Amino acid sequence: MTKKKDIEVLRVTHLRGPNIWTYRPVIEAWLDIGALEDSPSNALPGLYERLTALLPNLLEHRCGVGERGGFLERLREGTYAGHILEHVVLELQNLAGMKTGFGKTRQVAEGSGIYKMAFRTRQEQVGRAALAAGRDLLMACIEDRPYDLAATVATLTDMVDSLCLGPSTGNIVDAATERKIPFIRLTDGNLVQLGHGARQRRIWTAETEQTSAIAEGIASDKDLTKTLLASCGVPVPEGELVTSAEAAWEAAKDIGLPVVVKPYDGNHGRGVSLNLMTQPDVEKAYHLAARKGGSKSVIVERFIAGNEHRLLVVGKRLIAAAAGEALWVTGDGTSNINALVDSQINTDPRRGTTEESPLNVICADVGAEVILELERQGMTALSVPAAGQQVLIQTNGNVAFDVTDQVHPSVAAMATLAARVVGLDIAGIDLVAADIGRPLEEQGGAVIEVNASPGLLAHLKPASGKPRNVGAAIVDHLFSVTETGRMPIVGIAGGHGSTMAARLIAWLLQIGGQKVGLTCQDGLFVNGRLLPKDGFSDWETGERLLLNKNVDAAVFESSARMILTEGLAYDKCAVGVVMSATSEEQLGEFYIDSPERLFGVLRTQVDVILPDGAAVLNAADAQVVEMADLCDGEVIFYGVDEQLAALAAHRAQGKRAVFQRADRIVLATGMDETATLPLSPLVPPEAVLAAIAAAWALDLTPDLIGAGLRTYDAHAQKQQH
Could you tell me which PANTHER family the record lists for this protein (predicted)? Predict the structure, then answer.
């Protein structure tokens, strides 16, 4: 039967950790390109023109050429459908707002038409959808059929918006990544763990695990917040708590007009009405605030002339400041307020309905605050102002104009004081001032609110001014300069004693005083206690150790099959051990059918070693020895025979090695023998040597290692009886 010119997706796997392709999660797809194996891109008339017309940004793809336009060069010269699909899928994700760049495609066997394609994705569902859409788009271009790119991008964009981290959380995660701090997303929302085990910190957008629940409660109680601030010398407007519209007007008269009416426990400016002068306005504002706040309790306070500002405090420092502006429209004598808002305000490209837009779209006939403001001026959204007449739509709407560099030092000090008084480690301080560059007391300015979990977007993407990297400030607040959030991780691969070596390493670390997690073929353990797996995959089982705040260090045994089907459970390790370059597993289904291909799998364990970490390698296995050149950190060879060529050459270079001599184990740095230890009679020599080398790499002393070996022997003998 003649094969069709088509692309069939045979298998799709989400590799959630470091894998044979790269350090980061990817989707691996197995493709059968059928008769397209005989038709590279330069043999498909019009493909280049149709594809580049649909996706002009393919020009930015460097591909293997390494420079802008590299992929298009390959496309002109002739490349195969699997490789083209890789770039189409990456570009679709980019167009949807989920930036990715890594991809690789390899044929499994010459002339087979079967390819493995891997591409980076930040969210599995989006990646799978992009793969399906990319296949349809490419086939449409090959067959010269129309394709609705706009609809595809809209669908993928909606998925990105609903499934990926929000921009504020994403900025914090990106800042952590920049500092090499690992992260784990804990929910489908914005709850994220930075770091591993006992060294982790957790964030929920602009809240951290250091954010006090008491402080959040105080911040939500606006009346209590004002009382505490005033007691500490922070200027606040005079105000009164009321529970009826009539009481609101009485309070307004006592305080003095104009006044502000706002919810007792509101946030983000919802239900706030400003500059109220009459009884009807105050009473309507009361009902709005009660509805928005969900409570009869409403605050009436003195109106302060000036612009609203939002100051972001992280720890004890002012990080960013943004100002608001009043929104007006000018009548033309024929258009109603709705039309004027759409033509004069909403046409601003900075306005939108998603978090990506620094300014909001204004709906004059929907937004309660706008409706109330218009009513105060005797208008509705359908009113037609006279030509030249100015109509106020929103007072101090959209606090999104960066003024960080203009803040007076005394104002910054007042903002940080307000955050400390409430007890928040991250706070949004709302204040009103005519000039943020002058002290508040000089101009009658005041702090009007202190907000927990403040929005960050106004500082990340201001409508004007300099964007502020608030995520970096939050990460620096959580982790000192010397902290990475990483606990010591030992990864072991290669079979032939790896389970025994993993258990012995965990024991040595435990004897050293650490609470140790271990996942190996024997099960999942924390400090020697066996935990139930409960149906978790090997990857998920390993991740449980990274999530456990009770774990100081962890040991992972990873099989070649796990690397191929899930990836490693951790991103980097302090020590990587490879005991052999062979496997007892049957891996033919993955097209791993030669020592060279197995080498490509097991080298993953060496690829993830930190620059200040170490590879522990078996000097008796020639292929394992070759992995030494792939290590970014130190290499420690071990071997039963001290005359092994690789081991001897290593020592001649002054490097560390562990080897057996008669019934003793020698730890040597170059030609200097640092220590000798007794050989355990209960553990295979290769496993003992690998474990000792790993423990030594983690700076356990020879004396402590020796004590651990003796106690492990006693423990093993007890288990045998």
Answer: BETA-CITRYLGLUTAMATE SYNTHASE B-RELATED, RIBOSOMAL PROTEIN S6 MODIFICATION PROTEIN
Q: Would you call the peptide bond into 454 cis, given omega within 30 degrees of 0 as the criterion?
A: no
Q: Are strands 516-520 and 553-557 parallel, antiparallel or unpaired?
A: parallel
Dist. CA 276–CA 657, nearest whole Å: 80
Read off the tokens for 59. 């020009």
**CB neighbour list of residue 37: distance below 8 Å, 6 or more residues apart:** 80, 111, 112, 113
Q: Judge contact between 598 and 583, C-beta under 8 A.
A: yes
Between CA 556 and CA 566 the distance in angstroms is 14
84: its two tokens: 């083209």
CB 291: neighbour CB atoms within 10 A?
13
Phi, psi of 113 (to 5 degrees): 80, 0
List phi, psi (to 5°) of 299. Answer: -100, 135
Chain segment 340-386, per-residue pLDDT in tens: 989 998 998 888 877 677 778 888 766 777 877 788 777 888 999 88
For the chain, the domains span: 5-163, 238-302, 307-477, 489-711
**Could you tell me the fold of the domain covering 489-711?**
UDP-N-acetylmuramoyl-L-alanine:D-glutamate ligase (3.40.1190)
Q: What is the DSSP string of 374-434?
A: HHHTT--TT--PPTT-EEEEEEEEEEEEE-GGG--HHHHHHHHHHHHHHT-SEEEEEEEES
- Tell me the CA end-to-end span of the chain in Å, nearest whole number: 66
> What burial class does residue 671 get, using C-beta atoms within 10 Å of its C-beta: 0-12 exposed, 13-18 middle, 19+ buried?
exposed
Q: Which is the CATH superfamily of the domain at 238-302?
A: ATP-grasp fold, A domain (3.30.1490.20)
HSE on the CB side for 545, CA within 13 Å?
34
Least confident window among 303-307, 320-324, 335-339: 303-307
Structure tokens at 101: 């760049």
